[in-house]
Write a structure and sequence with these properties.
six-stranded antiparallel β-sheet; 8% helix; 576 residues; 2 domains; Tachylectin-2, Chain A; Jelly Rolls; eight-stranded antiparallel β-sheet
């Protein structure tokens, strides 16, 4: 018995020692792994760290626990849509050609949000995005809950294929494959479930007879049969052009219908997604009736404010509303946070503000020169330690066998190009001939930028001697605008370099020769908001500056146009 005891104790000691060795210093594991990599055309990433450092959050501490920062979901989270089952809140945003598609966020109190996964997490759900540019793909999804059949619906547009929806009874589980809506012409579909059991789809489209001018859009409605899962009857235009048709308003879209005090309220974005963006509201006595615009429109905009104001929030619009069990209404909408009203790289972010009501029964979020607030309060809530807003730090040590929810790829899963199991504890990327400048799926895995000022770093093992193979970190806006921070071969020498890709141009900003025996390197990007600084390290805690004051506006929508924000991540290619 005594021998058995000591044998068991010895076994446990050995097991614990093995665990300690496995999970000890990852830098030591990096050195060992470099000797075991048989495929020279792969890059191994040991960790990836992202840390926000925006001055506004540092200088404006939140007061009691019921306060929160706006945006509630910082970084590119455009076209927010929200629903509730009476106890839980679910919020989604656009993803365009990123995969997985449509992140799903969950909350019990509207302040504390956590990501519950993605709506479109299988390639069979995405249809095909090969050949679509970064600003195409999945547009303006809308989430709704039908209490009559206890089913959740997400309707959206794939620009390359048309409108469809997916459904589920368990939003935390799997969502269905796409169900096409061939009779719904246009973009931005949204469900409305009336309290009499009837259902409708409302969306935006050009007039079938042709637009009167560029940007002329109409809101149309069509009845939906929840039993057959398809529309029925004829569609009807319920709002044309916008609030003041005589002024030729543009891009009326993103519609939602609500029933409040026996009146039907139609809200929609108007004015385009730039500085003239807004949200407007109409009302009617029947869901398919003749909607009249509110005299106090717009219900949300920042178009009239002084552009020189401090900490400006601009381009506000594309809203959705939700009511709490206590009877309060809250709005979720997109807006931008430019630096000094000059440019921004974060894309359109998701903001949250309380809804007010006019004496004649119309909702509004801002009126006149009201500003979108960067600090708000929701009475009765308690802010958790882990929240989606403010400054925070996220580090992924790649210890799981699947990517966590911060990561996305382009157009498809890219599962043939990366692995988390080939070398446990490392993300492995293959050098592939697909470049991020193409409209195919490259070996790129990225996350949103969520702060103007941030620090991002990774450790990489890469031993390729092929002149066309490079791997490292990527700051990516679209197919024609990105910075690649890489290690590879140039003129027979191993180098670390910074490349800038712009419209019809490629430029090497800086490079530094390394020993040809160098296989392990740490890379770090430090952003001041206006500029990026690039560092590399060959020894622990000894950083070398490679390139300073690199123009961040190169990746801004002001420079590139488009609907997404900038992402940052890891990238490998054999097409250099």
């Amino acid at each position: 018995m005594k021998n058995t005891y000591y044998f068991g104790l010895g076994f446990i000691t050995i097991l614990l020692s093995a665990i300690i060795i496995i999970f000890s210093s990852k830098s030591a594991r990096s050195e060992n792994k470099a000797l075991l990599i048989s495929d020279k055309s792969v890059a191994l990433f040991d960790y990836f760290s992202y840390k926000g450092n925006d001055s506004f959050y540092n200088e404006n501490a939140l007061q009691d626990s019921s306060f929160f920062f706006n945006p509630i979901l910082p970084g590119w989270h455009s076209d927010p849509s929200i629903c509730t089952n009476g106890e839980d809140y679910f919020l989604i945003t656009s993803t365009f050609t990123y995969f997985p598609g449509i992140p799903l966020y969950h909350s019990k109190d509207l302040v504390n949000w956590s990501q519950a996964g993605y709506i479109l997490d299988r390639e069979s759900q995405m249809l095909n995005m090969d050949g679509q540019g970064i600003n195409e793909g999945i547009f303006a999804p809308s989430i709704s809950y039908n209490p009559f059949n206890e089913t959740y619906y997400v309707a959206t547009t794939n620009i390359g294929y048309g409108n469809f929806y997916v459904e589920t009874k368990d939003p935390f589980g799997a969502w269905s494959d796409p169900i096409l809506l061939p009779e719904v012409i246009g973009i931005d579909p949204s469900f409305f479930f009336d309290d009499d059991g009837k259902a409708y789809i409302v969306n935006s489209r050009e007039p079938l007879s042709g637009p009167d001018y560029k940007g002329h859009q109409s809101i149309v409605i069509q009845e939906f049969d929840i039993n057959t899962g398809q529309t029925t009857g004829q569609s009807k235009v319920i709002a044309d052009k916008g609030v003041n048709p005589e002024n030729n308003p543009i891009w009326l879209g993103g519609p939602h219908i609500f029933k409040v005090n026996n009146k039907y309220l139609l809200i929609a974005a108007e004015g385009g997604t730039e500085g003239w963006h807004s949200e407007v509201v109409f009302s009617c006595d029947a869901p398919m009736g003749n909607y009249k615009a509110w005299e106090g429109n717009p219900m949300l905009t920042q178009r009239y404010l002084n552009p020189e104001r401090p900490n400006p929030v601009t381009c506000a619009g594309h809203a959705d509303l939700v009511q709490t069990p206590e009877g309060d209404w809250w709005a979720f909408f997109l807006a931008r946070r430019p630096i000094d009203n000059f440019f921004e790289n974060l894309g359109r972010e998701a903001f949250m503000m309380p809804v007010k009501w006019s004496e004649d029964g119309f909702p509004y979020i801002t009126k006149g020169e009201d500003q979108v607030q960067l600090i708000c309060k929701k009475e009765g809530t308690k802010r958790d330690e882990q929240v989606t807003f403010g400054n925070f730090e996220v580090t992924d040590n790649f210890m799981n066998y699947q990517l966590n929810d911060q990561w996305q790829t382009l157009r498809s899963s890219a599962s043939d190009y990366y692995s988390l199991s080939d070398y446990p504890g490392y993300l492995t990327l293959k050098c592939t001939p697909v470049c991020v400048s193409s409209k195919k799926t490259p070996a790129y895995i990225g996350r949103r930028l969520q702060h103007h000022s941030f620090e991002c770093s990774t450790r990489m093992i890469f031993d390729s001697s092929q002149k066309n193979e490079r791997a490292g970190m990527l700051l990516y806006k679209d197919e024609n605008h990105y910075y690649f921070f890489w290690m590879g071969m140039a003129d027979g020498k191993r180098v670390v370099g910074i490349s800038k890709t712009g419209d019809q141009s490629n430029q090497l900003l800086a490079k530094k020769e390394l020993s040809n025996k160098t296989t392990n390197i740490e890379l770090k990007v430090v952003s001041t908001g206006l500029y990026y600084n690039f560092y590399y390290s060959l020894k622990p805690d000894k950083w070398n500056l490679l390139c300073k004051n690199v123009d961040a506006s190169h990746l801004s929508s002001m420079n590139t146009g488009g609907f997404t924000g900038t992402t940052i991540g890891v990238y490998a290619t054999s097409n250099q």
